[in-house]
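seq as requested:
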Amino acid sequence: MKLQKILSNFQKLHPKEIDLSLDRVKNLCAKLGNPQDEIQCIQVCGTNGKGSTISFLHSILKEANIKSNIYTSPHVKTINERFIYNDEIISDDALVELLNEVEIINNGEPLTYFEALTAAFFYGCQKYKENIVLAEFGLFGRGDAVNILKRNLCNIVTSISEDHLDWLPNKEKNIDRIIFEKTSSLLDSNIVVSKQSSKQITETIKKNISNNKAKKYFFEEDYNFVLKENDFFYFEDKYGGLKIPKPNMNGQFQLENASTAIAALRVLENLNIKDEQIITGVKKAYNSGRLEEIKSGKLKDLLKNNTLILDSSHNPGGSKALNEFLQTINCKKHVIIGMMENKDHEKFLSYFKDISSFTVVDIPNQINAISGIKLKEKFKNISNLNYKESVEQAIKSLTLERNDIVLITGSIYLAGEVLKIN
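struct tokens:
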């Protein structure tokens, strides 16, 4: 109850949950002693793959006995997931203590919810100054509260695609403006750019960071990977080649995320990461709700003879990568979808091919979600589409054959609810 009360207090300090300016968070961090100026940070921006890339970074660093503090958003199940210190998710009591102290120091000054959490995370890092900080900054990085560092170890740019267009000016709702917002304020240490969905996007990123004095590393030019037989992939950069077992996380795109993480850590030569630590770390990496097979639990019990997969893809870029994975599987696929109101619903669905059935559902406990009924109206030209109020009802309504796959996707908020129910 104490935690919910403090979080509720923070939500009342500003009429908006997000307000893309940095003055408020800078003022609070100054009151806190500017803890963000004392951290050793790898910052990760992009549209898709941020969370998985951080998972690979974290797993490899653990194998090298290097402790991490991690800040990501949004969370899947509990807000504690956003606060990882010394490789551990913060406890409720410790989070209450941290947020309470920040609330007192802020003294009722205007502040968005996200800014409060971000400042609190940096403040909590003071106890673990020797750790590497892995911090995701999202939406549009230029105005993101995480983007107040004066120096860092490295910037990672994951795959960039169209998302959150509702935040952009009417005449600039395009990929060029998104790239500008995400990359124009990157610090000048190291920039590692992941594989992009097109050469045009890569070239636009290059142009946008051309005046940045950072050392720059691009996929295919400075590092690369090739998928080999027998569940291995081969990574190569200027430091040499590595034969690495495929990660436990599903999807070709996870090889791209893993390779980007490897490239970044090898660029940071002072960390002295060994080849065997990379190999083991990649294999052990895990990211909840990203093409995750649900192998037990309440929902899985409804699907004794079928595979249940949960994926939090929520934009066209994520949907495209998800469907590339589905095309590699030779069986019938049934897709259950719930989405937020501000997403490109039609384009998200357009990438799905050869799907036996679609079922749209409501996302519980999310006032900004689009209702399943409204989503069904948008997809009225799809003949094999149904509406059910809940995921549980959707699963029970399916006509399945042995070994069919059931995929739940469309939102990280839906993924969180599914994990809670299960």
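The first helix runs from residue 2 to 11.
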